[in-house]
Amino acid sequence: MAGGMPGHLTRWMLSQSRVIAKGLAIREVQRLVDRYGGRASKWAKKSSPSFRVGKSQYEYHWYEYHGIGRVGLKRKQIARDDYTSEKEK
Hints:
Structural class: mainly beta
Number of strands: 5
Largest sheet: 5 strands, antiparallel
Number of helices: 2
């Protein structure tokens, strides 16, 4: 995503998303069931492709349940380049 940080999940990001945890492997699955309903085994934690803004790299993370939808959208910083490479000098 060159040029800026998306303010929300785009269709492209959703189409390229991946499951990073499912069911009881999700630490907060009981909170999700208590708050939104459904069965623990059907909840999934997903991640968007990474995108760069300046020197930082981000991903969106969220929880998803078919029939309930997406909840808990968060932008996570996954990397930061704190150095200047020889090519940039």
